[in-house]
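From the shared-data thread, chain only:
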Amino acid sequence: MLQHLATVLWNKKAGPGYYRIGLRCPGNFSAAVPGQFVMLRLVRRLDPVLRRPFSIHNLVMHGGQANGIELLYQVVGKATTLLSQLKTGDRVDILGPLGRGFQLPSGAKKVYLAAGGVGVAPLVFMVSYFRRRPVDLSQWHIFLGAKSREDLLSLDVFSTLNIPLHITTDDGSAGEHCLVTHPLETTVEQSPPDLICACGPPAMLGCVADIAERHGIACQVSIEAVMACGMGACLGCAVARRGEPQTYLHVCMDGPVFDSRQLKW
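Structure, as tokens:
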């Protein structure tokens, strides 16, 4: 983990209220893995005081090396509103890469990725990461859900891949009119995968974990949590561990990616 003063390369709209920001970092992010995150702070500002966590959406590659990162974010409050106003050449202070990422078990060939809304962020990095390695993605499937057509993110990335893409929206404005877990379970029943990886709202992740457990499938979930430090000092991102007596794990250090069987849903 390193602290970086990063330079904004681009800050583009990815949809109504959504942005992708590219950052050039002096450190080498080539060792970053899908699911890891950074803690970002706006420079020369006293408010907001605390850093904000963002999943690494992708790496910015140059000459075969990662000299930066891209983040996908939604404008939801003061910090992200200010972030959306940054221009090329502006600076931000980041800590990272942090946390535990997704792990592809040896022998896993059929992998299903499920994302809800902005939870798609680390899964784009996952596909990009394994495309650059000797991994066969021909049996992978992507399940992408959102509230509406306007909330579907990264379709420009996924449409260029030769990977089956299942789209759902809550209002039926694009894809199937249902929750993303419906086609996921149907496909699992028809052709069980070796691994399910998911990121999205807690209710969705709980449903994905239940599907995986009922069908005896390994499942890794990326948990979103409010963090003050990102390094295990504040203990504010605790999640309940399954089992008795009740104990807790911390998203920043033990996650954000967990084996779904570790957690109490």
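The helical segments are 78-84, 121-131, 155-158, 181-190, 202-214, 251-254.
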